[in-house]
TrEMBL record:
Residues 19-103 form the Core-binding (CB) domain. Belongs to the 'phage' integrase family. Residues 126-316 form the Tyr recombinase domain. GO terms for molecular function: DNA binding. InterPro entries: CB, DNA_brk_join_enz, Integrase-like_cat_sf, Integrase_catalytic, Integrase_recombinase_N, Integrase_SAM-like_N, Tyrosine_recombinase_XerCD. This is Integrase.
Length: 319
């Protein structure tokens, strides 16, 4: 209940929800607090549903209780023309899930999004930028590890490269999630959907994590966050977890400092590690298990081995 109250006071209800009765308003808020546990999904769905309800309001819909399939279909059609198909499909999924929740709560009799089809979209290759192994090595070696920030940044980037960790899982780690098992350092990642994923450390990652924990003297703070912000004026670690936006800004600074031309992001290192593993004889099935993918089809999106083949063929055009 406290979480629901905090969420309610942190935002203004969309006009179509505010125009409905108290039951609808309560059920709408409970959808985000009770039904969606992942904060990233909650944020994305909140933004998408907010835009849809604003569109409905602009088109004369009086209340969330009177939204019809025609409204949902027209919105998705317009969105498909203006945005990418994956965006339209995600928004439709959010709208459909919300109205399923409202149907169960007896706020609306039927789900107006149930019969609406999203745009066709098939992906065989992901868009995440991938670094060449030599670029990743150059980036890691360029970090000045004489400072707490340097030790932290090398450990974080190394974790994503060598364990294929998502940035959210990496930043959600506590110090106790780095532990010894069978005389080897392991990491415990708390992935999407509440899944716990454990991985042994590559010897380079093991060295990075040992240097970070010992150099910054946080090894004994077992319940504290593993990756932390740097205090202003002190250049020492705080007890505040490193936000994802700060991690992204750090990666941009580090890549710019060594002149990497590829426009990279937090997810780049996951894709770089998976591609490097596959190029060196790893199997797709093992890569999927290491990346905690439920299907090898998802892992294939990170496989960029074909890029080199394509480049070799392009260079055959000798003019």
């Amino acid at each position: 209940m406290n979480q629901l109250v905090a969420f309610r006071h942190s935002r203004v209800l969309p006009a179509l929800v505010a125009a409905a009765d108290a039951q609808a308003q309560q059920r709408f808020l409970e959808f985000f607090v009770s039904n969606i546990r992942n904060p990233n999904t909650r944020r994305a769905y909140s933004r998408g549903i907010g835009e849809f309800l604003a569109w409905c309001e602009a088109h004369g819909v009086a209340s969330i209780a009177v939204v019809q399939p025609l409204h949902v279909a027209a919105y998705i059609e317009e969105l498909t023309r203006e945005r990418s198909p994956p965006t339209a499909k995600q928004r439709l999924a959010a709208i459909r899930m919300l109205f399923d929740w409202l149907v169960v709560g007896q706020v609306v009799p039927v789900n107006p999004a149930a019969s609406v089809r999203g745009p066709s979209h098939s992906v065989k290759r992901g868009k995440t930028p991938v670094l060449d192994p030599s670029e990743a090595r150059q980036l890691l070696d360029s970090i000045d590890v004489s400072t707490p920030a340097g030790l932290r940044d090398r450990a974080l980037i190394g974790l994503m490269v060598y364990s294929f960790a998502r940035i959210g899982a990496a930043l959600g780690m506590k110090v106790e999630d780095v532990y010894v098992q069978n005389r080897r350092l392991w990491v415990r990642l708390h992935e999407k959907g509440g899944k716990r994923h454990e991985m042994p450390c590559h010897h380079n990652l093991e060295a990075y994590l040992h240097a970070y924990l010992e150099g910054c003297e946080i090894a004994e703070d077992r319940k504290g966050p593993l990756f932390r912000t740097i205090g202003r004026g002190t250049r020492n670690l705080t007890t505040t977890p490193l936000p994802q936006a700060n991690a992204y800004a750090m990666i941009q600074r580090r890549s710019n400092a060594v002149g990497i031309g590829t426009r990279i992001g937090n997810h780049t290192f996951r894709a770089t590690g998976i591609t490097a593993y596959l190029k060196n004889g790893g199997t797709l099935e093992k890569a999927a298990a290491m990346a905690n993918h439920s299907s090898t089809r998802t892992t294939q999106l990170y496989d960029r081995r074909s890029d080199e083949v394509t480049l070799d063929e392009v260079e055959r055009v000798l003019i």
